[in-house]
Amino acid sequence: MITESPAEVARAAATVVAERTGTPTHDIALVLGSGWGTAADLIGETVATVENTVVPGFTGAAVAGHTGTMRSVEVAGSGKRALVFGTRTHYYEGRGVRAVVHTIRTAAAAGCQTIVLTNGCGGLNPAWAPGTPVLIRDHINLTGESPIEGANFVDLTDLYTPRLRELAREVDPTLDEGVYVQFRGPHYETPAEVQMAKIIGGDLVGMSTTLEAIAAREAGLDVLGISLVTNAAAGISDTPLSHEEVIEAGRGAAARCGDLLAQIVGRL
């Protein structure tokens, strides 16, 4: 668990990132969730790769389908530099909320103005087949936690930047959008919990992203959230849930997701 000041640890991490990548600042950050791991290859040329374990506050990947490295990528045709995180710390790992959002605070300390948060999730809309990317319009945080400490009353209206969602739809007009609901995990949701999520306005269910998005807004970053529907949520179909299914759906959608991200990032 991170016990030092979050800002101090983020600044220390950003200093190491700058040294290891040879890049004083980055412009855009991407967090690649389950199913998105190969997308970075299509964004541009990887200039440097840094093992998470040499950067203060970071650990190796704890979940299959993630990679324990971060990359500095020169975005094709834009002259911008992206900091691409191949894994995230999930709330269910038990390392505390500060650790969960350390990636976000490091990205802000590294100079990023925009962050793209991706994840693999369960879909509540039967029309969203596995492999369908969906823009996150809003979220419901069911973790019972917040990354904001103290009397800092951050406005979460339009947390997921409308301008960035419009830009994404310019790239792919077929993109749907929905409300992402984060459960604590690591167990999958029960069919009754999925129905509850639907009743309160949810369209997508998963175990990440909302705490990161809140921390990004606190840090002043523009946020784009994209979920990859890797399976129908519990009770929506008769198929039992498995992480192997999540990984396989990600492989099948890798080309589409990578191309989508590359085009979006190129226009940011």
Automatic annotation (TrEMBL):
It catalyses: a purine 2'-deoxy-D-ribonucleoside + phosphate = a purine nucleobase + 2-deoxy-alpha-D-ribose 1-phosphate. Gene3D superfamilies: Nucleoside phosphorylase domain. GO terms for molecular function: purine-nucleoside phosphorylase activity. Pathway: Purine metabolism; purine nucleoside salvage. SUPFAM superfamilies: Purine and uridine phosphorylases. Pfam families: PNP_UDP_1 (PF01048). It is an enzyme of class 2 (transferase). Keywords: Glycosyltransferase, Transferase. It comes from the Bacteria. Its EC number is 2.4.2.1. Residues 28-265 form the Nucleoside phosphorylase domain. The purine nucleoside phosphorylases catalyze the phosphorolytic breakdown of the N-glycosidic bond in the beta-(deoxy)ribonucleoside molecules, with the formation of the corresponding free purine bases and pentose-1-phosphate. Cleaves guanosine, inosine, 2'-deoxyguanosine and 2'-deoxyinosine. This is Purine nucleoside phosphorylase. It comes from Ornithinimicrobium cryptoxanthini.
